[in-house]
Structure formats: structure tokens, C-alpha cells
Amino acid sequence: QVQLVESGGGLVQPGGSLKLVCSTSGYNMDYYAIGWFRQAPGKEREGVSCIRSNGEIYYTDSVKGRFTISRDNANKKVYLEMTGLKPEDTAVYYCATDGPNPTYYYTKCTAADFGFWGQGTQVTVSS
How many angstroms separate the CA atoms of 24 and 16, rounded? Predict the structure, then answer.
């Protein structure tokens, strides 16, 4: 079955960097979009960055110039490199894919378009 596992979260000071990794299994990720989402306490889940199977990339405005998404289909991984981290980036970060289920199809970087989710990894930006 489709599985997504996030890693790389942690505690970092403002201005610091982290690299999140989404490891996938159980399906051929070459054909599907992957997204990184985040959810802070009391807030809705937000699409941070998404990458299509053809490499087309979306970033939400608040992370443009600071975050970089990339995919390594050969190793079945997707990365989110985060630099210039701010306290407002603090959240649980999830990776997700639209995956091999016709109910889900990536049109926008919103949670509703993604049917398969990882368990999340905590990112805390604090001094």
C-alpha cells in the first residue's frame, strides 16, 4: 500500500535551516504529484509547496525564496529544504501525494487534492 514517511524535523533557531525528507513506497511516484503541507495549532492545514510529476513547482507566497522542493524519483524521495526559518514556520509538516486513486488528482496545492498522507514531522523555530 502507499506509504509516506517524513523525517528531518526538529528545533531550530530563527534564521536557521532544516531539510525535510519524504520517503515513499508502495506505488510508482514518477507519475504523481507530491506536496508538503503544514498545520500549526488552531490553524487549517496549509499547502507549502507542491511538485508535479513533470517537475512543475508551486510555493505559497510566505515561503518563496526561502524553501526549495525537489524530487528524486530513483530513490523515491521528495525533499523540502527550508532556510531563513521564522517562528511563524513552526508547525507539523506533512507530505502527501494524489497517488493511485482516481478520487484524487492534483490541480491545486490544497489538501483536498491529496489522498495519501504521512504521519507528520514537527518543526519548531524558536530562540
Answer: 27
Report d(CA 120, CA 39) in Å as an integer: 9
Helix (H, G, I), strand (E, B), or coil: what is residue 8? Answer: coil
Listing DSSP states for 86-113 in one string gives -GGG-EEEEEEE--S-TT---SSSSGGG
Q: Residue 123: phi, psi to the nearest 5?
A: -120, 120
Please tell me whether residue 121 adopts helix, strand or coil conformation: strand
What gap in Å lies between CA 108 and CA 93, rounded to an integer?
18
Q: What sign for the dihedral angle of Cα 37, 72, 77, 30?
A: positive
C-alpha torsion angle, residues 16, 82, 7, 124 (rounded to 10): 50
pLDDT tens digits, one per residue of 58-91 = 999 999 999 999 999 999 999 999 999 999 999 9
